[in-house]
């Protein structure tokens, strides 16, 4: 089978999630499926050694148990900090070196696999500065590209067209397109068009698919409705993002919280309690994550009391996504004007409240950031798949795989 290169029109469109679903589908049709992240940026150490690979490589290898391929071949080129400067200074020598690594690694993975999937980074042009854009790499290894875009009709096609032109310039064929994170109420219209009985209007169906077939000669492989849960971060994600430390409730670090769950508390306790009660009773789809300054002892005490009451009778050893379990981030960021005599007092919570938090084992973490900075960073954070979050990995595969036309994918 000709290798498949999963590319995207821009960052954060769900490329890794689509790769997970495609790999899952292929493993049901082939005994040995290989995966490569030719050019990686965010890398991690594996096997307790000095070997470093792109984090997506660790995810795919461990989740699918790819024992037939080596880590080094799955992540041939890593782009660490300052690599771009080194490349510009080094010129053509680094280009030849990284191209040789990618070609050799791909050859070894293909030799041991019945099907091979490569995943790009960002949009098709990412990596151009080092001579290894997604389009370049797909051309080197002779892969067909599956393009992933967010969207509807017009805006999605505009983005797809810009990326297609670059692929065409490199002589790379587009195998098909997946539209991701589509509003659920728009899926049928995009995929099948409006339900019409009039023959005169039947030609208006399958808007994006018809445009792709007529203009590009490739199929629309899937239209995936948005699933908000997949965009939610875990407390573990936020702990790393904020460089925070749990003071209690560490066992709940795998629970998920979305952007709409965040609540920066700057109001009086009675308003905080009304908000917490509303989220528990009226918005059961929301699991609140409160952010406040560590000196708001009144808010922390109210949260602890509310947490204790709300978790009464709840099996906290086996929390599910449908269970309410509020959490809190305490910020120690200093005020603009701080009296040195009260500096420690202004940046810590009362010791007896910390003792109550530990006794209740409520999920609470502390960060050195200020409340505004922490709230903004959390709101702008995009949660990525990682091997430790198997609940979200399984949910992604279960959601995506049924929406991808594997017959069309393999027929190409």
From TrEMBL:
InterPro entries tied to this protein = P-loop_NTPase, Ser_kin/Pase_Hpr-like_N_sf
Presence of keyword Oxidoreductase: no
Spans through the membrane: none
Which one of the record's GO molecular function terms can you name? transaminase activity
Q: Which Pfam families match?
A: AAA_26
* Sections of the chain in a coiled coil: none
Q: Which domain of life is it from?
A: Eukaryota
Sorted alphabetically, the keyword list is: Aminotransferase, Glutamine amidotransferase, Transferase
Protein name (record): Aminotransferase
What organism, scientifically named, is this protein from? Aureococcus anophagefferens
């Amino acid at each position: 089978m000709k290798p498949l290169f999963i590319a995207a029109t821009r960052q954060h469109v769900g490329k890794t999630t689509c790769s997970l679903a495609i790999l899952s589908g292929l493993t049901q049709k082939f005994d040995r499926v290989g995966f490569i992240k030719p050019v990686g940026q965010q890398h991690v150490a594996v096997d307790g050694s000095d070997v470093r690979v792109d984090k997506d490589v660790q995810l795919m290898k461990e989740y699918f148990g790819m024992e037939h391929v080596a880590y080094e071949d799955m992540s041939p080129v890593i782009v660490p900090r300052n690599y771009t400067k080194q490349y510009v200074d080094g010129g053509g020598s680094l280009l030849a070196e990284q191209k040789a690594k990618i070609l050799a690694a791909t050859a070894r993975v293909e030799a041991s696999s019945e099907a091979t999937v490569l995943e790009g980074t960002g949009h098709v042009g990412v990596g151009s500065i080092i001579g290894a854009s997604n389009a370049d790499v797909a051309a080197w290894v002779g892969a067909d590209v599956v393009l992933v875009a967010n969207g509807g009709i017009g805006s999605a096609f505009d983005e797809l067209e810009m990326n297609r032109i670059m692929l065409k310039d490199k002589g790379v064929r587009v195998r098909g397109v997946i539209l991701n994170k589509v509003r659920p109420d728009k899926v049928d219209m995009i995929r099948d068009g409006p339900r019409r009985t009039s023959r005169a209007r039947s030609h208006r169906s399958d808007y994006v698919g018809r445009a792709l077939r007529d203009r590009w000669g490739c199929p629309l492989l899937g239209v995936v409705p948005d699933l908000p849960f997949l965009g939610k971060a875990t407390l573990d994600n936020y702990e790393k993002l904020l460089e925070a430390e749990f003071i209690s409730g560490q066992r709940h670090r795998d629970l998920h919280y979305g952007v709409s769950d965040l609540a920066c508390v700057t109001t009086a306790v009675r308003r905080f309690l009304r908000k917490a009660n509303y989220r528990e009773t009226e918005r059961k789809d929301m699991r609140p994550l409160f952010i406040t300054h560590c000196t708001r002892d009144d808010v922390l005490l109210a949260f602890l009391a509310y947490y204790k009451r709300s978790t009464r009778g709840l099996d906290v050893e086996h929390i599910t996504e449908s269970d309410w379990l509020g959490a809190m981030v305490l910020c120690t960021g200093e005020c603009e004007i701080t009296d040195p005599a009260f500096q420690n007092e202004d940046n810590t919570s009362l010791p007896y409240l910390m003792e109550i938090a530990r006794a209740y084992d409520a999920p609470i973490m502390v960060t050195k950031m200020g409340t505004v900075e922490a709230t903004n960073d959390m709101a702008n954070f995009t949660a990525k798949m990682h091997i430790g979050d198997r609940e979200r990995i399984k949910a992604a595969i279960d959601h995506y795989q049924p929406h991808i036309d594997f017959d069309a994918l393999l027929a190409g």
